[in-house]
Amino acid sequence: MIKVNDMNFVRMIDKKDIKKEIKRLGKEINKEFKNDSVEVIIVLKGAFIFAADLIRQFRFDHNVHFVQFSSYAGTQSTGNIFEKLSLSADVKGKRVLVIEDIVDTGNTLEFFIKKLNEKGPKSIDIATLLFKKEAFKKEYTIRFRAFDIENKFVIGYGLDLNEKHRNLKHIYQLKGED
Ligand code: IMP
């Protein structure tokens, strides 16, 4: 257990299990894209550690791009999405793989997928480290998922609490939040 900003967090996913799961997910993604050239879009900031590990599993041709959105304040989603860094890549007629750290309500990705679709890609797939399946109420599919988790706030392995603690090696869950 660790204490952060007077809140208790318990270890939920060990770094060994993260590593194992990323290997499995990498194989699944390699199968899908083996003969393709893919525009890989990493959603900053939270996905940077996951993406660094995941893309090193890739055995297909790809380019890497970054985008950034903002919707969270503390441990709650504000519901308003702002584009902080927009996509400069041309994805027309291309296969696209979006890498996220966590899909919660799905609002952020919905906002981004709409914008991406306007650019006419051949296909859009999503890979996420964590998926809060009970919070997710959207129509689109999250095809590549490492872990489905409970609807509780988590930090570590890239995920922050007010921009801090992204460097934690394991993933921690806020204790006693119901
Ligand atoms: P959504 O729009 O509700 O799906 O939230 C997506 C974004 O909110 C993620 O990319 C994260 O940046 C952030 N987020 C959602 N849940 C958590 C969490 O439990 N810990 C840290 N960040 C989170």
Task: Describe the protein's topology.
Elements: E1 2-4, E2 7-13, H1 15-33, E3 37-44, H2 48-55, E4 61-73, E5 76-85, E6 95-103, H3 107-117, E7 123-132, E8 144-149, E9 154-155, E10 171-174
Parallel strand pairs: 3-4, 3-6, 6-7, 7-8
Antiparallel strand pairs: 1-2, 2-10, 4-5, 9-10
Helix pairs in contact: 1-2
This protein binds inosinic acid.
Residues 46, 71-72, 77, 100-108, 153-155, 159-160 line the site of inosinic acid.
Detailed description of the structure:
- By secondary structure, the protein is an alpha/beta fold.
- It is built from 3 helices and 10 strands.
- Helix 1 packs across helix 2 (48-55).
- The chain is globular, with a radius of gyration of 16 Å.
- The protein starts with a strand and ends with a strand.
- The model has no long low-confidence stretch (mean pLDDT 93).
How are the strands ordered across the major sheet?
A: 5-4-3-6-7-8
User: Biggest β-sheet, characterized?
Assistant: 6 strands, mixed
Oligomer: single chain
- Give the termini separation: 18 Å
Unique bound compounds:
inosinic acid
N-to-C order of helices and strands:
EEHEHEEEHEEEE
The gross shape turns out to be globular
Structural class call reads alpha/beta
Helix content estimate: 10-25%
Strand content: 35-45%
Question: Mean of residue pLDDT?
Answer: 93
Q: Which stretches are low in confidence, meaning pLDDT under 50 for 5 or more residues running?
A: none
Write down the Rg: 16 Å
> Using DSSP, what is the number of strands?
10
Compute the number of helices: 3
